[in-house]
Amino acid sequence: MTTAIYPGSFDPLTFGHIDVIERSARLFDLVVVSILTNAQKAPLFTVEERIEIMNEILKPRFPNVEVDRFHGLLVDYAREKKAKVIVRGIRAISDYEYEFQMALMNRRLNPEIETVFMVPAEKYSYLSSRLVKEIAHLGGSVAGLVPESVEKRLKQRFK
Ligand code: PNS
After folding, report:
1. Is 126 exposed, middle or buried (0-12, 13-18, 19+ CB in 10 A)?
2. Distance 4 CA to ligand 1 centre (A)
3. How confident is the model at residue 41 (pLDDT cuts 50, 70, 90)?
4. Taking the CA of residue 96 as centre, how many other CA atoms within 13 Å lie in the half-sphere pointing to its CB?
5. pLDDT value at position 38?
6. What is the CATH number of domain 3-124?
7. What totals of helices (H) and strands (E) does the chain contain, helices first?
8. Is 129 a catalytic residue?
9. pTM
């Protein structure tokens, strides 16, 4: 049984993340989508809200996807979950430098864990949670970029 961890901030979950989750769920027996709880950046949605959003959207669609949270080193968490794979999405070359650095550092910390890069659909290649928040904050439409429930929560948050 191969367990993969898909770590991130998911603040908020976008269709780009869901695309990566869908692809990963086809490849691995179990995909644990896990939110980093000790991130330095101040989040828009609390960890509890993000978990709620993700469970609501992912649970009915993907039986082999689990939502969780973690703190500390990702490789320690992966070991705890008996996961041999870390999944990361790469949208463009600009993502690559940071992801490459993280993958090699994680390999140094635990050589038994492999990082697998997934490429989301082209239509999501310019999509990021940061831009979604900025657009929603300034009153623009994020329809088609995030699930409807996320759209609603963003509207509430910024009204
Ligand atoms: O969605 P993000 O913000 O790009 O996700 C970044 C994340 C959570 C994958 C990264 O910050 C992380 O793994 N943090 C945990 C701490 C850690 O293990 N740091 C060393 C990484 S080489």
Report:
1. exposed
2. 15
3. confident
4. 4
5. 85
6. 3.40.50.620
7. 6, 5
8. yes
9. 0.97
